[in-house]
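Entry type: protein chain
Record version: 2
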Amino acid sequence: MLSIVMLSAQSREHALSLTTGPMRYHAKGLRIANGYRIGMAWQQSLGNRLYKVLSLGFGEDDGSYYQPERWLEQATARDLYVGMGLGVNVLAYGRHRLYAHATLGGNYLQGHETMTREVEQRPEQSTILISRLSAGGTATCGYSYQLVGPLGLSLEGEGMYLHDLGFTYSLRAGLSLRF
């Protein structure tokens, strides 16, 4: 803990980024296709290429999917992820920056799945509620271009592992601020 505080005092560069874009869930128990993800990351340099990162992410999906045998399924999921980790600037040349970072943290997933089918000419409905707190991790690769001064644009891909739940994948674009 003390070494983290000491490294923070020596850091010279900070970055805050806000990104959003489409996401795909592959969570067990939920048959969910596409959604969106909003991510926020605070980066603080530890040297020339290495940096520490604190990330916060929110994802949501809400949709209806048709299955064979006249089943209609509606599944929703929302998750919140908080993690800490390390990253590296793979390439930093002028205004261009190619980076990768990984985090470990916690994830809270909340969702439900509603199924409707016809039984003897009447619809019958059942709902499964899911609420789980679990460990998770992310791996992110991205590209950032500094537009003017501290303001930059970024494009990144992220894979998230949700322990005992599944995976999410997202591709996001956003703004970054370096100071």
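Comment: The two ends are 25 Å apart (CA to CA).
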